[in-house]
Amino acid sequence: MSELVAELASGERRPLARLLTRIENGDAALRPQLQELFGAGRGAHVVGITGPPGSGKSTLVNALIGEWRRRGRRVGILAVDPSSPYTRGAILGDRIRMMEHAADRDVFMRSMASRGELGGLAATTWIAAAALDAAGYDPVLIETVGAGQSEVEIARLAETTVVVEVPEMGDEVQAIKAGLLEVADIVAVNKGDRPGADRAARQLRAMMSTAGGRVERTPPKIMVTTATSGDGVAELADAVEAHREQARSPVAARGRAANQVRRALADLAATRAREHPAWDQTVQEVADRELDPFTAAERLMEGVG
Amino acid sequence: MSELVAELASGERRPLARLLTRIENGDAALRPQLQELFGAGRGAHVVGITGPPGSGKSTLVNALIGEWRRRGRRVGILAVDPSSPYTRGAILGDRIRMMEHAADRDVFMRSMASRGELGGLAATTWIAAAALDAAGYDPVLIETVGAGQSEVEIARLAETTVVVEVPEMGDEVQAIKAGLLEVADIVAVNKGDRPGADRAARQLRAMMSTAGGRVERTPPKIMVTTATSGDGVAELADAVEAHREQARSPVAARGRAANQVRRALADLAATRAREHPAWDQTVQEVADRELDPFTAAERLMEGVG
Lengths: 305, 305
Known about the structure:
homodimer; alpha/beta; Rossmann fold; 14 helices; 7 strands; 51% helix; globular
């Protein structure tokens, strides 16, 4: 066993924190150790939690952490900042440090931000999840501000995806919701103490059953939670745990693996193309509109394999 | 000149609408014609407009369209739905049909949704923008609900990127804002009739000047608009037009071309890998945790070029 994995297995926080920084920075020297890192996993349940801004998702995550701590679990949390290439996660990172569980030694929280040579943000996140798994945290929560396709993609990498909603929202947010709902294994209609929460849950159940024709999957479980009071939080934790077996069916595991490989491939192709001898000239031809980007990509794929 | 380009050049709406449907569906038969389509561009100014949900972006886009129509321009608009793989753009599409310019023959509006074999949503959007350009629309506006990295990426493909903000917003939305601000060429602080709009604009100017150390670029122009009354809209249109020359510098054009090629490469690599004889077995090994996704990607890149 390498030093890296032995340090993680020790359960100490500092080696894990250092490793996560290297992962976040895309440290290329980690590359040969990834195989071992993935192999050192202890089978943690990787749970994605996403939802639009304003859904009370962070409060709900905080309440879920408390529930899992009461159940004796060591909880890992990765908060993925969608604006990451620019802010380097500073804002969600600050929020994390203010959370009530920040002083708990059995809760490890980290905001994920930058892109590096190891791949895009999705890849960075799943490597980080593997590190938390190897360090003995279970469940590992991946929290994203759900809105764009990146967040949908990150949510799909999790074994169980929880989408947090609120009863009432504007039109644009409705569009975002619809996209997220179809990756949800569990939907938490949060702010359940507001008028209309139960009706919203019923509407969602009806919506998910009629949407079945478009997307072939098990309809998500719809629950009502009130993160601020804790109502429904234990039931949500139960539902997440109950989904674990389903998430580990051979078909589901294969689907996730295919997504991971696709993502890694896309990043690898982009990295190698930049090193292609014809890169500069090809890009210039596209800039001069002498070549379209697709033909350019085909040219750069030659000899890249 | 092919039939495709001749039909677009005719200025009729129906061939353009049919072509956009084929682009959106990822029709592989279009692939050999893309070179010609990109070459048929008339040099339209491609303008990205993004901002968080609730910023009044759609109303502002509507007002900008009115302003450009008064200036005698034919305006193309692509509304990109971030939840696209699932809702197929139905929700933003409905909104578009309700817009006041829907009956104007010199305004062409379209919501972009699905992914297809031609590439991801970003690629689909820029091919669609090339089609609107070839059909004589200028400017071509690309509107996204700005939140995730996909939206940031789409915004970066535009020649000029306008980010719409509002004076007051919650913490999570602040995080989103910060990410968007750093891709902005122009920031419109909308809902300018609310208290604090001018102060918000001053704060943004201060923020952008101190952020200079992290990102090397020209600080964005900060403006105050009130889309509902039209205040500041003509000035915003002026600012967009004034940015056109700057956006077409050789350095800027090269940067955009490099992004387009990278995106096309990622999509091409993923498509080809799925056809690789070792695809099924490699994915299974990743699912069984015998192989990490990065080593898997390297294996699949062999012989793919």
